[in-house]
Design brief:
This protein has helices at 2-5, 8-18, 21-27, 49-54, 118-126, 160-172, 180-189, 207-220, 236-246, 269-287, 303-312, 335-338, 355-387, and strands at 110-112, 136-142, 145-146, 158-159, 176-177, 196-204, 224-228, 251-255, 293-295, 316-318, 331-333, 350-351. With 394 residues, the chain is an alpha/beta fold. It starts with a helix and ends in a 7-residue tail after the last helix. Bound molecules: zinc ion. Zinc ion is lined by residues 57, 203-204, 256, 260, 297. Residues 57, 203-204, 256, 260, 297 line the site of zinc ion.
Length: 394
């Protein structure tokens, strides 16, 4: 494995020049879409997009990508044609195996890759000091945790009992948390993170729930990510509680908008701008850190807002679609997110009401991904050796 990569960095530039421009140009296309899923005959679980409409925050814009929704899907083009490579007298050019597509995928969900350079992807996938194949991230969103004896009358709250059960299960299954920054490092470079990772995201402004998390964070050396509504209407006492909690270093404060407006096409451009830019200013002033993640209020997004989020400096965004866990260069998306052609800005999140099941599902997908990696390693290495290293190098 080490020899597979040892010269790689040295040759990246050379390779870029040697391999035909045609191929590189085709590699740089927008995110490649995996083959169509085989639609399973069992029903979707609780968090379909329809459920999102009814539950989180009233509605998900049914037609989000006003500009790009009808854009044709990019064609798969990561396999360069042998004619542009000088090694024509070798065996048939190696091909990458078909993309990992576990049976466990939910109907209508497709894994999407997002790294345009296949050689760099393979280096990061197999390189030393990186996350092992099968490393998985489970993003989970939390809202209220209801105290014992109180009735749950909405579909986003969980009981104290379930909250504790989730924490115990996560620990028993060997999960650890990561921060937004660690997630970005993992997504972009396969930065080493725990093999079973989760990012716990508490939405809105819930100091009481944040306090419930604290003992677990301390005990397990975990962090809690906040999808924080930044508007200045927040009471002083709440700011005080939150900045005190943040001083422990266990909070990863990210944006959940300024006034928590759902992105809709009828919003004024200035409103969208305020929703995305203002939280950065406020969070920097209050917490002394810069948010790099935007949690879309209500799970709503559109192409314009996504472009603006990129301009504002956000590197990742989270929806309220429960699509599945995330792997390196592999994000499970539904059609509304795929239409955005910006996978990192529309990352899925599981619902806290199904959080335990989400972890179990993630473990299964992680195991399947490991088996896939074992089976495909040789082909991937052959591909790398053929296309990503100049002649004669080992
Ligand atoms: Zn919210």
């Amino acid at each position: 494995m080490v020899s597979f990569l040892k010269d790689s960095l040295k040759y990246i530039v050379i390779v870029a020049g040697l391999l035909a421009g045609i191929w590189l140009a085709s590699c740089a296309a927008a995110p490649r879409i995996m083959p169509e899923p085989v639609v399973a005959d069992h029903p979707v679980e609780t968090s379909t997009p329809e459920t999102v409409v009814a539950i989180d925050e009233p509605e998900v814009n049914p037609n989000p990508g006003s500009g790009s929704g009808n854009a044709p899907l990019p064609t798969a083009s990561n396999t360069p044609t042998a004619t542009v490579v000088s090694k024509a007298n070798h065996e048939p050019a190696p091909e990458l195996p078909a993309q990992f597509f576990p049976d466990l995928m939910k109907p209508g969900v497709t894994p999407v890759d997002y790294l345009p350079n296949t050689c760099l992807y393979l280096e990061n996938r197999w390189g030393p000091g990186k996350s092992a194949p099968g490393t998985i991230v489970v993003p989970i969103m939390f809202h209220s945790v209801v105290q014992p004896g109180r009735v749950i009358n909405d579909t986003t709250s969980i009981s104290m009992e379930y909250f504790e059960y989730f924490m115990d299960t996560a620990k028993d299954l060997g999960f650890s948390t990561i921060t937004s920054q660690e997630l970005v490092g993992f997504l972009e470079h396969n930065q080493a993170i725990p093999e079973r990772s989760m990012i716990l995201i508490l939405d809105d402004r819930r100091p009481g729930v944040a306090e419930l998390f604290m003992p677990y964070l301390e005990e397990n050396d975990w962090t809690l990510t906040l999808g924080w509504i930044a508007a200045d209407s927040t009471r002083d006492a709440v700011w005080e509680t939150m900045t005190t909690l943040a001083a422990t270093g266990r909070l990863d404060v990210q944006s959940h908008g300024f006034n928590h407006l759902y992105i809709q096409d009828y919003l004024e451009p200035e409103q969208v701008e305020e929703e995305l830019f203002k939280p950065i200013e406020v969070i920097e002033a209050r917490f002394g850190t810069s948010p790099i993640a935007h949690v879309w209020p209500g799970g709503n997004f559109n192409a314009g807002a996504i472009a603006l989020a990129g301009e504002a400096g956000y590197q990742i965004g989270f929806t309220a679609y429960s699509r599945g866990p995330i792997l390196f260069n592999w994000i499970p998306l539904g059609e509304p997110e795929m239409a955005m052609e910006a996978p990192l800005m529309v990352l899925p999140r599981f619902w806290s009401t199904a959080a335990v099941r989400a972890l179990e599902e993630a473990v299964n997908i992680s195991e399947a991904a490991k088996a896939y990696a074992r089976d495909s390693e040789q082909e991937e290495q052959a591909y790398y050796a053929y296309y990503c290293r100049p002649d004669g190098s080992e």
